[in-house]
Amino acid sequence: MNIPQLTDRRKVIEQKPLSIAESIYLPAIAKGMFITLKHFFRKKTTIQYPEVVRPKATVWRGQHILKRDENGAERCTACGLCAVACPAEAITMEAGERKKGEEHLYREEKYAAKYEINMLRCIFCGLCEEACPKESIFLEENLVPADYNRADFIYGKDKLVQTREAAAKEIAAGGQISIGKPHTAHAH
Amino acid sequence: METFLNLLPTLILILVVFGITMVVALYSTYAERKVAAFFQDRIGPNRAGIFGFLQPLADGVKMFTKEEIIPVDSNKFLFVLGPCIAMVCCLMTGVVIPWGGTLQIFGRNISLQIADINIGILYVFAVVSIGVYGIMIGGWASNNKYSLMGAIRASSQIISYELSMGMSIIALVMLTGTLSMHEIVEQQHGWHWNILTQPVGFLIFLICAFAETNRAPFDLPECETELVGGYHTEYSSMKLGFYLFSEYINMFISSAVMATLYFGGYNFPFMDAVESSLGHNWMVLFGVVALFAKIFFFIFFFMWVRWTLPRFRYDQLMNLGWKGLIPLAIANVIVTAALVIYFK
User: Fold this and answer.
1) DSSP per position, B215-257
2) Radius of gyration over alpha carbons of chain B, in Å?
3) Which long-range contacts link B314-319 to residues 24+ away (Cβ below 8 Å)?
4) Which class for B61: exposed (0-12), middle (13-18), buried (19 or more C-beta within 10 A)?
5) Which residues of chain A does B324 touch, with a Cβ-Cβ cutoff of 8 Å?
6) Which residue from A159, B85, B151, B335 has the fewest beta carbons nearer than 10 Å?
C-alpha cells in the first residue's frame, strides 16, 4: 500500500548492524569513562542551600508584603482594587476609618482594618501589584512556606504588613517610592 | 600453650580482617555516594560530620530503626535465611586472600593470610557460587513476582559469567602452576605481575567480576526501572541492609582477588630495596598498604564504571556472556596453553 507523504520531513532511520569496534563495546566504554572522569574534576555546581541562596530573578514574584511609607504609616487605603483585580479571588479586606491620633499608623483617612490573602488560592500573578494605586502591595523575595492546616495559609495583616524596621531600612537605602512615580523599591 | 600461641595470631587476624572488611564496606557506601556525586558535578553527602564522614553511621542507624516487615505469604524461614547466606558467603571469601607477607615478631613467623589452603582459588569460586543462593532463596521466599524475576536473573547471570570467569582463571593457573593464592602472589615478586602475561584473561575476569557482584552495567537483578527493587523488593530494615552490605563486601573481595591474582597482591616495585634498607617487617607493612591501594583503586573503578555505563538489556547480557566472553576465554586458554608448551 502506497501511503502518500504529508510532509517532506520524513526521515528513514538506518539501523546498521554494529561494527566490530562497536560490538566489543570497549572503545566506546573507554571514551565514556574519559568523559565522566573529566566531570569528576570539574567545578561543582552545588549551592549549599540554607547557607547560600541563589539570587532571585528580577521578575520573581514571591510572598506579598504591605508597605509602609517614609513615616512608618501603612500605605494601604482599602480601596479594594487588588481584590477586584485578583483572578483567583484570594484577597478579602474590610475598611476602617482613621481616628484622630492614628495619623502615624495609617497614611490615608481610610485604611484596611482587616486584610487577608489566601495563599492557597493565590496564583502569584502579580495583578494586585499592578492594580494598587497607592504602591502598597508588592510580591517580594520570600517564599510562602509549607504548613499543616489550610486555615494557616490565610495570611492576615500580622504576616503581610512590612515591619517598621524593614520599612525604615528600605527608606534609608533610598528604595521607597512616593505615590505617582514609577516605583523602584522592587528591584527591576 | 604452644598450640594457643600458634593459633593466637590467626584468631587476631580473623577479627582484624572481619573488621577491616566491614569498615571498608561501610565506607564504600559513603564513597559510592561521594564518587557518584563527583561524576555528576555535585558534592555529595556533607552534612553528617565533617565532609559527611558520619553518613554511613547515620544510614546504619536508619536501617536498624526501620520497621521490620515480613510478608504474610512469604516463607518466613527462607526469607530470613536469604540475607544471612548472602552475608556469610561474602565474608567467608576473605579467608584465603593473602593480605600481606610474613611478619617476623618475637622470633615467630606470622603469615598475614588466615588460611593458606592449596586450592585457594577454587575455594573462592565455591563460596561465591554459594552466595547466589542468598539471592535466589531471598527472591523466591518473598513470594513476589518482581523478587522472583530478580532472583532468576541473578542466578542465570551469575551462572553464565562464572563459566568465562573460571576459564580465564584456568589460563592463569596454567601459567602459575598452582591454585594457592599465597604461591600465586609470591610468584609475582616485584613488578612481575600476572597482568603482563594475562591481559586478556584479566579483562575477562574484570567483566565477569562486574556480573558476579551484580554491579552496573550488569545490575539487572536489582533493576529498578523494571523490577521495583529486584530480589530485595520485599525486604526492609537490616535484612535489606544485609543485602546491600553484602554487595559492597563482594565488591571489596573481588577487588582484592583481582589485585591478588593479576596485580601482584602485596608486591610492589623496588620491594627488595625497601627490605634491605628498612628491614623485612617494614617491607611487609608497605606491601599491605600497596595491596590496599590496589584494592581501593579497583573499588573506585567499580564505581567509575557504574556511574558511566547504562544498564545492559537482558538479551545483550546473555549475548555478551555466551557469545562474546566464553569464546574469548576459550581462545585465551588455547593460546596460553600453546605459548606455555612453546616456551617450556
Assistant:
1) -TTS-GGG-HHHHTTGGGTT--HHHHHHHHHHHHHHHHHHHHH
2) 21
3) B314/B153, B314/B220, B317/B157, B317/B160, B317/B211, B317/B218, B317/B220, B318/B156, B318/B160
4) exposed
5) 24
6) B335
Q: B308: which chain A residues are within 8 Å (Cβ-Cβ)? A: 29, 32-33, 35-36
Confirm if A72 and A168 have CB atoms less than 8 A apart.
yes
Q: Side chain identity at B3, as an amino acid letter?
A: T
Residue A39 C-alpha from the chain's centroid: 33
Beta-carbon count within 10 A of A141 CB: 14
Tell whether omega for the bond before B217 is within 30 degrees of 0, i.e. cis. Answer: yes
Q: Check A45 against B324: CB less than 8 A apart.
A: no
| CA atoms of B104 and A142, how far apart (whole Å) | 69
Angle (CA) B161 B119 B107, round 5°: 135
Partner residue facing B41 (CB), from A32, A35, A42? A42
For every one of its 188 residues, what pLDDT tens digit does chain A have, with 9 covering 90 and above? 677 777 878 788 888 887 777 777 888 888 988 999 988 888 888 888 888 888 888 888 889 999 888 888 888 898 989 999 999 999 999 998 888 888 888 888 888 899 999 999 999 998 998 999 888 898 888 888 899 999 999 999 988 898 888 888 888 877 655 444 444 444 44
Instruction: Give the residue among A111, A114, A186, A123 at the shortest CA–CA distance from A155.
Output: A114
CA B146 to chain A, closest CA, distance in angstroms equals 29
Q: Which triple of cell numbers denotes residue B57?
A: 553511621
Beta bridge partners of A114: A94
Best B218, B308, B313, B328 member to test A by mutation, with max A CBs in 10 Å, is B308
Identity of the residue in B41, B43, B324 whose CB atom sits nearest the CB atom of A39: B41
| Contacting residues for B207 by C-beta, under 8 A, at least 6 apart | B161, B320, B325
Instruction: Provide the shortest C-alpha distance from residue B320 to chain A (in Å).
Output: 9
